[in-house]
Amino acid sequence: MTGLDAIKAEARARAFARRQAAFEGGHPAPAALLVEVLHAYRGRPLAGYLPMRSEIDPLPAMVEAARHGPVGVPVTPKMGRPLTFREWTPGCVLIDGGFGTVVPATGAEVVPEVLVVPLVAFDRRGGRLGYGGGFYDRTLARLRARGPVVAIGYAWGAQEDDGLPLEATDEALDLIVTEREVIAPRVDVGA
Q1: Which of 67, 100, 166, 187 is the most buried (most CB within 10 A)?
Q2: What is the block-wise mean pLDDT of the chain (191 residues), using blocks of 10 residues?
Q3: Whole-structure pTM value
Q4: What is the DSSP letter of 21?
Q5: 121 in helix, strand or coil?
Q6: Cα within 13 Å of Cα(102), Cβ side
């Protein structure tokens, strides 16, 4: 493990503890802010996620979005590959997707223009610390090379961390939505 890997592992451990405490204190979180933000993108192909463990739950917003256009959820590929997204509808049959995830048993591939992205920690500049596999970074880089994509981090406010150990390959978020606020990332001059 490199020095940066160890620093990221420590940052993840601290963030997981904060996320778990927020989950226990506020579950279920209201998704009203996420629904409101996604209203601006109504009808555009969306990728959400099916929450696991202490992740904040985007399902109410995904149900609303599915009334207006396709909604996909991630299918985890082999290490080193970007994610693909399988169409999800409320009440669809789910199967084991590996790595503790579930995915729709059937469904067309969705190529999202808007992604609701799970995370471990975030900062107000749009930085995101994920689980460490780089799946969303590769996916966002690939999608952004094709055209405009909006990446919306969805997290408990307690997951905010101003000291994230980020790398050049870490893709930035365009917005962050918490249970309390919508954050438009700022870019510091000279940062």
Answers
A1: 166
A2: 80 88 79 94 97 93 97 87 94 89 94 96 94 90 96 95 88 95 73 42
A3: 0.91
A4: H
A5: strand
A6: 12
